[in-house]
Queue: 3 jobs
Job 1
Amino acid sequence: MDNIYIEYNFTIAPKEPATEILIAELGNVGFESFVENENGVTAYIQKEDWDANILENIFVLNSDEFSIEYKQNEVAQTNWNAEWEKNFTPIQVNDLVSIRAPFHENPNLKYDIVIEPKMSFGTGHHETTHMMVEHLLNLNLTNKKVLDMGCGTGILAIFAEMKGAKPTDAIDIDNWCYENSIENVSRNKCKHISVFEGDASLLVDKKYDVIIANINRNILLTDIKAYVNCLNDNGILLLSGFYKEDIPIIDAEVSKYDLKLETFIERNNWVALKYNKL
């Protein structure tokens, strides 16, 4: 029997940073998935986890800085799956990498990543995913030990293996993402990726040559110390999931640990930073 979901359609003005804050707050009360769109975001929660007062303590909805309106309705999971098919468009990076679903045509680029996003996918991550892939394209990953923190669908871990990384750990706190990453790792015939469900507490006594963290700003600020502690000398830290205006606060935190900002990429005000450990 298909699960029943409650769907909320939020119209947000201005969109940022209200959308990012709203998604973070909704995630804390049990919403499982989000699809960003031109006017805001659509959020989904299983009916069994929902109650009529679930938005009562969502701070951003009461903020004077933003105008947020919403409508809700009930949908079956099968309808949701059709929704992500409709919203998930393939990504191509530098005419070298394609990221697509099984139902998309293969453009026959050098690297072809096939994912089936299901509930763990949000179209709003296109910019950050694109930029992280750009960074990885420019790195020699042969036999490098890699961490993909907040792996989502597993895209970046999968691409790292395609570029020669081994072994790679992929970690996400969300159970949907954990399950979906396992599926996508198998779908892309990866042999050197281990997927874990959890947070930065799993990083004790771990060491990596390259760490990828495509997560929201507040989690990054909390966990940067943990990342640095498990980064090998001359290692590389790639950070994304935040806006250009956030660079000073991110850089101030990372700089405490003798990492140097080497370069960053920007797309539609999203940024991805590359740090080297001195």
Job 2
Amino acid sequence: MSRNHWRAHVLLLGCVVVMIYPLVWLVGASFKPENQIFSTLNPFPWGFTVDNYVGGWTATGTSFTVYLANSATIAVCVVVGNVVSCSLAAYAFARLDFTLRRVWFGLMLGTLMLPFQATMIPQYTIFYKLNWVNTFLPLVVPQLLAFDSFFIFLLVQFIRGIPRQLDEAAAIDGAGHARVFRSVILPLLRPALLTTAVLTFIWTFNDFLRQLVYLSDKTRYTVPLGLNSFIDRASGSSYGGMLAMSVVTLVPTVLVFLVCQKRLVEGVANTGIKG
């Protein structure tokens, strides 16, 4: 039994090394001189330097601060929009009785099967006619309208786990649906709302395709588009700056995950598939 125990640990340790090696190599390579980046598989720098960070910050012709600010602005707005609109939509599906509720819920779930590529052209046409292309509006406004079905479904499942007796007790005291949602459901919904906020921030901050479609002005570029600019300008000696800025890009999402990790796991664990 003990031998099997150690074998399992050795196997898991090997898997961990394989999985984190690319990340360790990325961080180490960002501190290497340009001529040492691809010269060895050793992830640790022998000639330590921060020139890649200093030069990479403005290597694309625009300060990386602009990209970070744009990504943060979009991500925060999308987080607020998703949390508010998806929680309201989830409460309606979970607690309100209206015509064809099951049908509408099924149609909402059906949109989960549609990739962004399938709806990209009609959406672009709508936003183009509204003169919203090359602005943040196409990336933010849909999230204010309960656009993300995945989070609606997640919140619906969480609300279904909240006893209806709490709603009924509040209704006896004269509370309407707005008061029940605000005073009863919302406080108990915090773990699921935090899960929604964290996942929305990470996915939005790292989104590339949607931002590539709608943003063309470099002053409005986000972090993924800023990193893509390094590829457009790549000459065989600009990889150091690109790797350094890739490390900078990881910092916000990793910090958000580490700070909220406990609540995030709790929210996911408490959101079961309930009938």
Job 3
Amino acid sequence: MTAAYDDRDGWIWMDGELVAWREAKVHILTHAMHYASSVFEGERCYNGKIFKSREHSLRLIESGRLLDMPIPYTADQIDAAKEEVLRANGFENAYLRVVAWRGSGPDMGVSAARNPVRMAVCAWEWGSYYGDAKWQGAKLDVAKWKRPSPETIPTAAKAAGLYMICTMSKHAAEAKGCSDALFMDWEGYVAEATGANIFFVKDGEIHTPLADRFLNGITRQTIIQMLRDKGYTVHERRILPEELEGFSECWLTGTAAEVTPVGQIGDWHFQVGRITRQVAEDYEALVRA
């Protein structure tokens, strides 16, 4: 059994210094705990190198800006903190979580402009996010919740509060024996999984939902460019649920998910086909280059 995440050996970077893992704590009146004033990044380190580290650091800063929560560190300082954590823990291959949040301070209500913005960097060794599904093809439920309109939430932010329906939907999916759940957006178009973007194949061409109403994943952008460099046609567009019946292959992308084939979504079935396997192999080669 894996040790609980609050009971491990190691070091966590908090507010500019390394803290023993078990001592990395916050107060119960931390604003983020009550009002979701928190943004984060998930990153992977392969063979001692963090993949797309600078892009993740810049996105963290942008997420903070979108939540009116200025991050008090530069991209250079965030990059350096990540490297310090990897060295302190002796990791060559690891998952990193960088999180920034409004801490406790003179304000304890919806408004908290006077409370300090804090930041921490953690790292741990972590295998495949979907376990065996990464190779066999994941089974996805269809979530009852929908991704909300960009007029109601900052969809370009990787903000903790936006994952509430993700947790609920993934729990419901796991109770049905599925690995994850697929969201539609508020208009009924295909959107994304709980923590990963989605791609489909039809007649040798790639189709993926237009990422203007949910987070445009860094791995998603990497895969699209990789496919286009190889000569594939990639359509970024609105996709209706009834179109899923006509797609032959499907996969998920994300820092944690990497490239994970999908074998089933609800009543729709897909092959773990040639293009999916090639994308997974090419991505693995890229991140370890």
